[in-house]
Design brief:
About 25% of the residues lie in helices and about 35% in strands. The chain has about 230 residues and is α/β, with parallel strands linked by helices. Bound molecules: S-adenosylmethionine (SAM). Pfam families: Spermine_synth (PF01564).
């Protein structure tokens, strides 16, 4: 078997550790120091795509739509969102780590079909939370995959996103009928309670890491009332 080749490293702010991008043949892997196994792999990305397909399903017949994707990772969620969104959509993709965006403009970009080349994409380098405290009713969908789940992993400051304050802010940032979709490694009843408390109607979907097989992941689908 060919050895891994290291393509780049990046430091997560506030001592969040080091991300490492590696390639072996056509396979890419991103690891985080201190975390066993891979953070992301180009071998399995069905649940990342499902996050977008389920979170944007209500928008596929719209003439336009405004969607936030946080974070970029290997670009699978972003690419799947672009696939189902109309030609006049705007998709703002946020990532804390500039190198992750650079990697997607380089060799890593081929994994998900170079979604950053799509003219509907706007890149925000920084915290996705910055976009969610913007004026009310700004987005038709917010797709979050920035952690292992609502308990946080890559960036401790992310806990705000899943708090009652953060959840209420995201509720306000959505248009009526808008959806917040959140990727998680597993279920979290406390988070579901917080989402309901903020006003969302919540469904919890289980999705596999590969179509029909592999680990089971969770997608929280939280809908703002249409009125
Ligand atoms: C698991 S990956 C996302 C995978 C992505 N869904 C895909 O399809 O490849 C998580 C990404 O979120 C970014 N991230 C973590 N916290 C963030 C935050 N608060 N704001 C923006 N990006 C963040 C990380 O740098 C990393 O690129």
């Amino acid at each position: 078997m060919k050895p891994w080749i290291e393509l780049g490293t990046a430091h997560i702010p506030n001592n969040g550790g080091t991300l490492k991008l590696r390639q072996r043949d056509q396979e890419f892997s991103i690891t985080l120091s201190g975390v066993r196994g891979e953070l992301m792999s180009s071998r399995a990305f069905n649940s990342e795509q499902q996050l977008a397909l389920q979170g944007c399903a209500h928008l596929n017949k719209r003439k336009s739509a405004r969607v936030v994707v946080g974070g970029m990772g290997m670009g699978y969620t972003l690419a799947a969102a672009l696939e189902v969104l109309p030609s006049c959509a705007e998709v703002i993709v946020a990532d804390l780590i500039p190198e992750v965006v650079e990697w997607n403009r380089g060799a890593l970009g081929d994994c998900a079909g170079r979604p950053l080349d799509d003219s509907r994409c706007v890149v925000h380098i920084g915290d996705v939370g910055d976009l969610l405290v913007k004026p009310e009713c700004s987005y038709d969908a917010v797709l979050l995959d920035v952690d292992n789940g609502p308990e946080g992993l890559t960036h401790s400051d992310n806990s705000w996103l899943y708090s009652i304050d953060g959840t209420s802010c995201i509720y306000s940032s959505l248009t009526p009928g808008g959806i917040l979709a959140v990727w998680s490694a597993g279920p979290d009843n406390m988070y579901v309670n917080r989402l309901r408390k903020a006003g969302f109607q919540v469904e919890v979907a289980t999705v596999r890491e590969r179509p029909g097989k592999g680990a089971r992941h969770t997608i929280f689908l939280a809908k703002k009332s249409a009125r």
